[in-house]
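Still learning. Show one?

>
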Amino acid sequence: MVRHDGENNLGVWSEFGSVAGMVAGRTAEDVTDDVTGDVQTGFGDRPDLDGLPDITVGATIAQAAVELAPPEGYDNRVDADGDGTDDDATYLGRPDGGVDILADVDGDGEVDFVGADVDLDNRVDFADYDKDRDGVFEKRMFDDNGDGFLDRAEFLPGDS
């Protein structure tokens, strides 16, 4: 703001223009680690929250979608809730070559079943369940004999 006598009256904001210029003038080299080349945010290491492959700088959404797609020709159906009918599920490729199967068993819009077909035989080898709908997977079931039915259950660490 300029007063009628021509003098600047911005108070603490009078330096805003020069500070903005300094910030805009910083380059990626100014904020990267000299050893790793990673951008330093000041928030510490970035945890892997979803278990999915990282999308690297320069990767496109289409490339990421191809990496997450199940192998070509993979055609599986799953009855995650055990009611005798196939459930709507999302099939994602795994870094080890298998497929993850995600389903909303109770219809609340949240995934509460994540099955893994690690050997691509169209049978779930193991699956994690969120049985109490709290967003935490507390139970893992296994198909020990390979017949396509989950035979054994274990509670995941920290839950009971």
